[in-house]
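Deviation from plan, reported transparently: ANZ complex.
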Amino acid sequence: MAYNFKKIESKWQKIWAKDDFKIWHVEDRAREKKLYVLDMFPYPSGDGLHVGHVEGYTASDIMTRYYRMQGYNALHPMGWDAFGLPAENYAIKMKIHPRKVVEKNVKNFKRQLRSLGFSYDWQREVNTTDPEYYKWTQWIFLQLLKQGLAYEAEVPVNWCPADKTVLANEEVISDKCERCGTLVERRQLRQWVLKITAYAERLLEDLAMLDWPEKVKEMQKNWIGRSEGAEIEFPVSDSNLKIKVFTTRADTLPGATYVVVAPEHSLVTTLGARIINQSAVKEYIEKAKHKSELERIAEAKTKTGVELKGITAINPYTKKEIPVWLSDYVLLSYGTGAIMAVPAHDERDFAFAKEFKIPIVPVVSPDKNDSGFAAREMESAYIGDGVMVNSGELDGLPNHIAKDRVIEMVNGKKKINYKLRDWIFSRQRYWGEPIPVIKCEKCGVVPVPEQELPVLLPKVKNYQPTGEAESPLAAIKKWVNVKCPTCAGPAKRETNTMPQWAGSCWYYLRYLDSQNKGAMADKAKEKYWMPVDIYIGGVEHAVLHLLYARFWHKVLFDLGFVSTKEPFQKLVNQGLILGPDGQKMSKSRGNVINPDLLVGQFGADSLRLYEMFMGPLEDAKPWQPEGIVGLHRFLTRIYNLGMEVKKNTKKKKADGSAVLPDSAVRLLHKTIKKVTEDTEQFRFNTAISAMMILLNELEKHKNQLTNQQINQLTKLLFPFAPHLSQELWQQLGNETFLDAESWPAYDEALTIDNEVELLIQVNGKLRDKVMVAKDISQEDAEKLVLEREKVKEHTEGKKPKKVIFVPGRLVNIVI
Ligand code: ANZ
Ligand code: ZN
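Because the crystal trials were delayed, the predicted structure below was used instead.
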């Protein structure tokens, strides 16, 4: 009988699906030992499942099944992150409602996930676009609003004139919209903003308690960008105005030879009349508008700028008059939007000063004995520590001491800055959660009363974005015009919607209690299941989803709605699966691999196994079209071996008279140990190769294999290839589900090798090797060694002068 994977896989999938997948439904608090294994839920795109999804989802399924067998109550849920632009754009093109698009795509995704045998608790399924779900997304927004953590403000944003919406910084590449390639504009728009900066310090600090890849922690640290420095004021000549700068190097103030403000800095409008070179300044500002922040601060770029002629400032330390420049390498949104430039000690300032011939004055000397330094021309900026020079009374002081003195002397203020910005939270698009507020002429912003949630997303005739600071919802007058909940006067609903990140900020909590009508999640359930013990997903979410979700979670923690400080205790990043050409898979390159085809051709188990065998889970790895064939063959051999054993058992051939050799028994125990340890460490590729080595050995002893021994191999394989394993299990006379079986145990004593390789030297030269008992005595070793042909050859029958013996390692015969 051949390995008929099609029949086997569809048979078990049908059985598993019974009673709404009851087999994988977990009860809350059913056991003390719990484990929450979470996948990053997919955006259900029209393209269906990607082999990258299969990679992460197989890894989490293996963990879930493994820990289930280890006696854990293991929660493994799945859902849909279904708001967002792609569904909406498709709906616009095809003139169908985005909900219909999502429904269809979800159906297809579900079929695919089921076809792969993933053991989800489907009774907990969530969909972020379901009103019963987004009711609670809106409810969390209201909590943020109540806490003053959501506010409206006029902020600079990246605006795509073609997609007619605000874009995140990450969605702008080389000044262009990532989606359509249109040049983005910087606009000032009134937006809803979430005060994530209020949590900057805790988001940074609490990274220490997480078992996450260092790389991701580092990315979050850099994104939050904590920086200790000071604010110092530079008076503007002939005016009461002061330019406030933020600096981390107050010690270098004596060497500040000019000031630079951002193109959007208010100084330009306030003192506009005094600027002599108005048209050059205006032209420069116009150009800067088209650049993204990333572009502006790129290190490699030559610095551009324009002097504000007619305006000068006073260095508060030297009291000297210095020029004021405008340049886009200074960002309005960081610090104070203005800097003191110290070309001698900052690389960017140095390049700028060279370009525009501004004086460079060194004030920190690397070597206190180098008396010429203060007067010498510099070839590059010196950014290290040293002693003060050219700095009046500070001369000779170490610069780190001068720093505090300077701040005191010029009345500066110590300040901690973060690169992190508040989160721009509104979108001018249709397919998102309506922001649950009402605007009343008399009362201002009024939250929608909680009992009126959800604010349903109404049907519109036209999803086309309006191009204004409002979404297509603004066109539905009946929906927009409402009575103010406070004064009953005429009022309007907010028409902006939430960004696609909102729903994914808290979905892991809804899984705990997905049907709850009265609360986001029951507190006792939350307390039992949280935190997520294992979270698997791509590294591309390092600073977006993973930071936003931590922020919301901390707010919910402060309000007492969740019991843990952090949502995701352990994070594992799956590596990118590249196309066969070693490039990123993409439709335009035509190198996309379709999982459906592979499941049809080789079966789900082969695909699962191949993806886990490709290499370490975290590594990027190219698809090898032939690779899956090898894994399919491996499964076929296991199947055949199982069938052989079954046949033999029937004939009672495998009896006591023919037992498995000791070495094979040992290998079985060693393999159980290795697969156990590797699985716990996410080393699935080496776990699989250990099973392959075991199979090679067991095939040699087909007729001596007992049922019990093949059962152990079946259990080991189960988390990786569940269909085949369950089938074998049944064929071998077992009636249970492997999900409910326990993980095989091994005998530690049998995993320890009791033989070692003894090296044999003659006069210090390696001449031979032999396997011996680990604890062989010197006497026995000597006797054995002297009898060996090769040894006799090299000793030429002479009596050894001395024999050196290193127990368990080597014998050296000295003649
Ligand atoms: C003078 C100085 C001298 C600086 C020196 C550095 C070296 P981090 O560590 O990233 O916080 N800076 C301040 N605000 C800026 C803005 N809005 N756009 C661009 N650059 C800005 O860096 C702080 C330093 O970056 C500040 O310290 C300032 O330059 C610059 F030898 O002030 B420094
Ligand atoms: Zn009102």
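The chain has a mean pLDDT of 93. We consider this an acceptable substitute for the interim report.
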